[in-house]
Amino acid sequence: MSQIPPAQDPNGAPYGAPHAAPAGYGAPNWAQTPPPGMNGVYEGPLNGTPLSDSDEKLWGMLAHLSAVIGYIVGAGFLGWVGPLIIFLMYKDRSRFVRFNAAESLNAAIATVIAEIVLSIAVTIFAIVTLGLGSIAFPVIVVPAILHFVFAIIGAVRANQGTWWNYPLNIRFIR
């Protein structure tokens, strides 16, 4: 007696046999699984409506670019507003967007702190040197320039869907 071959689905696998889930359905999402060793990633549950891959890349990029726009519009001190807004809007919807917004927000907070400390230090230096130390005042904008450059790099990386940490970043928020 011969056996009847099992019916097959269009991909050639027998019906009822285990098979790989189509992309985007039950498969691990690149935006929810950071590479090992990545600093500052929120590990808790996300309970918001998930975003599409293109939206995750877009909002991750805008989290960084909003800091750049904040520096241009706010004379160097408003680089934290845009990342904060994006963080609050998307923190429960996408681990990738949350990471990028937190990374940019942390850099902006560290930049403001560094600028305040440098302002105080340079002012004291200028007073002690009877005004000669006032030539050091341009040093105060160095942290903002660094964040500006890192934010552009972060925006490009986020648009490519790459997880990237700012160098020398203090992580206040995850």
From TrEMBL:
Q: Does Lipoprotein show up as a keyword for this record?
A: no
Q: Which organism is it from?
A: Brachybacterium equifaecis
Q: Transmembrane: is it a keyword of this entry?
A: yes
Write down a Pfam family by its short name. MamF_MmsF
Localization, UniProt:
Membrane
Q: Which UniProt keywords apply?
A: Membrane, Transmembrane, Transmembrane helix
Q: What is this protein called?
A: DUF4870 domain-containing protein
Question: According to Swiss-Prot or TrEMBL, what is its membrane topology?
Answer: Multi-pass membrane protein
User: Which parts of the chain span the membrane according to its record?
Assistant: 61-86, 107-129, 135-156
